[in-house]
Write a structure and sequence with these properties.
Blueprint lengths: L1 H4 L2 H5 L36 H69 L3 H30 L4 H45 L5 H10 L2 E8 L5 E4 L2 E9 L4 E8 L2 E8 L4 E3 L8 E9 L2 E9 L17
Antiparallel strand pairs: 1-8, 2-3, 3-4, 4-5, 6-7, 7-8
Helix pairs in contact: 4-5
């Protein structure tokens, strides 16, 4: 009966304590019966986080150094770009100055040539008008002939129109021949004037005095004894930049009209330049050249530098 009253529920809540039961067999093991038992839990192995941190710090340093190098390289490239642009701007400015000087030279030469030939604007306009009239009449004659053919005119009418056209063209050809003759004469005069401008070079002081007596211009001598030496002739400042005795060439800086221009030429080669207010071009000639020294003269229109003694005033008895 006692076994019937015991149940797992009674045993769980201690309801079977009044019923004697056989002692349970002691579990086999090193611990004595009734002693407390302890369960030891082992901590999981730690990860390698302590070793990752130095790598991250090193990577950050490498990235920082790379950024600094990139900044310096970019700054250097930008600086080189600015320097290159500045050099190109300087070169462009020099080319513009050279173009201005060339234009001034051609303008002065044309003005001198016009004065030598005595050409007037009216004569030039007449030459242009004659050429335009010739072209107009030729076009009209051809147009009239084409109209006659397109209308299927008779042979006599076509011949008449063609004869009239030939007569007009013949007259115009005569005018054209006369105009061409005048142009040839003008060309010869221009060639003579050019020869006079480029051929009249004085290589000594005595030749310069003779040239001053022969032409209607003023001549002023100068001497630059060393590099960067300066001498003022009227409103023009001359400065020697360098010389090349092997090639007989020189480079000078000219200061006038609030600007500087650099010219490189050979010995006894005229350098033309135009100064504001002058009636024609000024001319610079170097007739003596040595190591870091040059001498020569500047030629100007008559009376352009009235307060500066010219070569004749410096030698009144010549």
């Amino acid at each position: 009966m006692a076994e019937k009253n015991s149940s797992p529920g009674h045993a769980m809540f201690g309801l079977n304590e009044g019923t004697p039961q056989a002692p349970a067999a002691a579990p086999a093991g090193p611990f004595p019966p009734g002693s407390p038992q302890y369960v030891y839990l082992q901590a999981p192995p730690t990860s390698g986080g302590g070793k990752v941190l130095p790598w991250l710090v090193g990577l950050a340093l490498v990235v920082s150094v790379a950024n600094l190098v990139l900044v310096f390289v970019t700054r250097s490239q930008v600086s080189d770009g600015f320097s290159k642009q500045a050099d190109e701007l300087t070169l462009l400015t020099r080319r513009m100055d050279s173009s201005d000087e060339r234009y001034a030279q051609l303008r002065g030469q044309f003005q001198v040539t016009s004065e030598k030939l005595g050409l007037t604007e009216e004569q030039l306009s007449r030459a242009r008008s004659v050429a335009a009239e010739i072209q107009k009449q030729q076009q009209a004659a051809v147009h009239q002939l084409n109209d006659a053919i397109s209308k299927k005119a008779s042979t006599d009418e076509v011949n008449k129109v063609q004869a009239d056209a030939n007569a007009k063209i013949g007259g115009l050809s005569s005018d054209l021949a006369g105009t061409r003759k005048d142009l040839d004469a003008t060309k010869e005069a221009l060639s003579g004037t050019k020869g006079e401008l480029t051929g009249a070079i004085a290589r000594t002081h005595d030749e310069l005095v003779a040239l001053a007596h022969r032409t209607d211009r003023d001549y002023f001598e100068f001497n630059l004894p060393k590099r960067h030496a300066q001498q003022k002739v009227g409103t023009v400042m001359l400065q020697l930049e360098k010389t090349d005795t092997k090639r007989n060439t020189f480079t000078v800086n000219l200061y006038f009209d609030d600007k500087r221009t650099q010219r490189s030429h050979a010995l006894n080669e005229p350098v033309y330049f135009y100064v504001q207010g002058a009636s024609s071009t000024l001319e610079l000639v170097v007739n003596k050249l040595g190591k870091d020294t040059v001498s020569g003269y500047v030629s100007t229109p008559k009376g352009f530098f009235p307060s500066v003694p010219n070569v004749l005033a410096a030698r009144p008895g010549a």
